[in-house]
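Rotation project, supervised by the postdoc (A.L.). Task for the rotation student: set up a whole-complex structure prediction and record inputs and outputs verbatim in this book. Inputs entered:
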Amino acid sequence: MLVKDPKKEFYDKIQHQRVLILVTFDVDALCACNILQYLFQCDQVLYTVVPVTGKQDLENSFLENSEGIKHILMLNCGATIDIIELLQPDDDVCFYICDSHRPVDVHNVYNGVQVKLLMKDEEMRDIPDYDDVFRDDEDDESDAESNDEGEQLSKRKRYSDEYILKRRERRQWEENRNKTLFEYTQFSSFGSSAALLMFEIAWRMSKDTNDLVWLGIIGVTDQLVHYRISREKYIEDVMTLQSHVSRHNFKEGPENNQPINSLKISFEDELQLTLYRHWSLFESICKSVTTACKFKVWSMKGRKRLHEFLAEMGLPLIQCQQKYSAMEPSLRNNVKELIQKHIEKYGFAPEDIVIPSFNAQYGYRNKLCASDVVLACCALLESPQEKSQNATDSFFQAMDILNRKNTKEMEEALNMAKKQIGALASQVQTFLDMQQVMSAGPFLYAFVQEGTLEAKCLSKPQCLQRLARFTLEAYSAERRSKKTQYLPLVLGVPLDAEQQTSLVIGIPPLNLDDERKNFFGKAFEQAAVTTNSRTLHNYFDNYILQMNTEDRGKFFDALINLLQVSLSLSLSLSLSLSAFICASP
Amino acid sequence: MLASKAFELIKELSRGNSGSLSPYNEDCIRQVLDEMKSLYEQNQKDVSDTVAGETGLFSGVQVRHAALERNKRCLLTYLYKRLQIIQEMRWEFGSVLPMDIRYNMCEQEISWFNRYNKMLAVYMRSIGDSGLDLTQDMQPPKSLYIEVRCLKDHGEFETQDGNIIVLKRNNQHFLLRSECEHLIRQGVLEHVTN
Amino acid sequence: MNSLNQQSFNDSNVDYDEDSEEEAEALTAAEVFAKLEEAWLNEKFSPELLEAKTEIVECIMDQIKVMEENLLKCKKDDMKICIHKMELDRIRFVLSSYLRIRLQKIQNYTAYYLNIENQRTDKQASLFSPEELKFAKEFHSSIDKHLTELAMQHMPSILQNLNDNLSGNKPDLDCYVFLRVNEDTDSVVIDEETTETGEETVDFQKDEQHIIRYQPIRHLVSSSQLTLI
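Outputs recorded:
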């Protein structure tokens, strides 16, 4: 059930109770968790935070930690699965779900007692009506039917007009139900950031601080960086946050009367160059998705064009290859204006290169933009692990750097992020050089070669997401033909050499960018079922799965078949596919 | 050299870093005692010789006696200092010592530890009417509840209000400070400060 | 919030007789706590064991009990509870810390203090509380036994006495301490007359702060004319 008044229905309910918080491995969830921890510490609500990697982990963590706990909060997990069915909790356990994954499972939506959804009202419009998906008389009917079986008398009844009518009506309803459900679940997408929602709860209770705003900002930025929300939605959220930012950072009287180590957030148009404040300008341009693809930096010609561009701006190459912080101040201070002024000539739209964003500053040295924090945090979350380490080790390391006092750790994390992005860019280069991006007809696919150095740090869901997107954009920039704009991409990366598993992701075509809807979840599920492939749909993002590498062939054949049908009919999945899927259980 | 073994014991003490206990050096102690014995016998012999009329032995006796005194002092220091370390451990780890420390203690030290435990318990029980656990409240309290992170799998833990919490590596909890103070000192939990 | 405070504090206007004189003096809880705090600070900064403040400890223990009981009576979601619990934790910390420091001193110089205790005349107040005395004796004998078992009994017979070893250990009374003056005291001798220099004296005025060698002013600490800080 959707929570209308978070204070009354959520926050007041958990006062003086123990709360179990289950958090997934993404930056948004981390931020939301941090905000919650702050709130709970204010009000002395006892809690336990448990990080969960996937559905299996969710089940295990629930079993281990749920003893005596009546209130369970889920951050960025759980909405898309029927939580009561999966976890089989006691009747008095209540789940509060704050998850940006969509679509929300209908069972969760209509369970009024045990499941409370902390989501924005206006995002829940397209949920099917209760009557369309649930039917109260379901049970009696099947009961009646089975009873009928033995009795001769009722045999007549079965053929009576009334009964036939009822049967037909029922069949129609079922058909309709399947259709509605399919339409509802065919695309996976994302709603508002969990961190933003948590921040708004804090704000409504007048417990918001500047630090909490910053966490909200990072959450929203994470959604943008990982292509979860469209630019429009992002800007909408940023505007909401901006009013909070200006409220908290309003200074009366002369400036600089705030202590230097307090957090100052400022709203700015930010260059969309990855980590450029912590890198050299040149490196950053080569490794940012948009600039790398527009300049095609992987080709000689592209490099030349990039040099040309830098020359035109009057930035000496030597300065650009210098650490940004060591650039000559007169040049450095003008970089943004120069780039904005000259880049249009090279086929960029203004919104390709700048985006409204936020900067945080505290102390003399530490200036960070929101996407820097996201990338650093993400790099820590998904850092390659040694055998002895537990996946959860990195979770709290990542959580620690959200605390702004840990500046040293932050710097290390930024270096890790650079390494990760370097690996990403060089993998894209390999794909293009070796022409490893292939067309399977209805979609493109590519596989990271086994045994490469990069494979190890790329085999993480969030990173894979960015790699897939980078690859797709680079490929479509390389091929002039418009057709590539309409093709989705499936990308695989080896996960475990011993167990022969790989991680596979599907992302939608570029032309559907505005919607950020991904249909691969259903398609993967279907392809796996029809081919009996050994797959594991463990992630909360259903368009990412683990599969046995040997089954790749047949899985892809099925996927091609499935998508071919849909491709011929206007690209989004069609009803014929829907019939196909509904036919199977 | 006279009393060099005893000096070794002292060096061993000063080498040991805080928070650990070096193995009880029974071998060395026996050697020191043996040395004392032979020194003493030599002295006795010389003294009786002197009484018998021999001269020139007196300075030898004095040196040996000084060595005896030194040996005794070193030996006692060694034993006493170890007891002090064990004492500190009692406050650090509580009434049950970790195996690796127990392993380095000799039999008598273990029984002394148990006796110390007992007298401490008797004392703490006798404060006021109801007794007071002095090993609690070691740090000035800042807040009622603190945030802690689990460093190792510890298993179930029952809180004062009767709830059971599973302490598993890499979970984070918000708990009553007084409850987890012991666990923090044992290294099961880590206090997260922010 | 005040009501609970008042209530718990007034409930427990315990009779508290100072300096074991006959006149029973009623103190409020806040005053007892101030006394404990003073005793705690003195104990913390003085190099030697000070006189046991048995009455204060008992009084505070009762106080804690009363407060705990009062807390149980209150509703769970009360804002006051947190504050009172916190208060309770703080009191308990000061008390524990006070007793811990004393115990530490006793353990370090057991023989020295036991000697003092043995030579004490009935007129002098004991350094120990009865419980502490019991602990000290037990502690001393346990150490004795341990050392005898492991070393002494294996030594030649003329070396088998412990006295000079353990009792040689005594606190450093010549260390310097910070102090604040509680009441005016004139001409305190801080350096005894030697052949070269004359006697050196200092006049203490209320609220002054000094750094001074402990030995000459130790009697002023025990008569609470000074507080160590």
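Student's summary: Helices of chain B lie at 4-15, 26-51, 58-93, 99-103, 107-126, 177-185.
Supervisor addendum: The radius of gyration of chain B is 25 Å.
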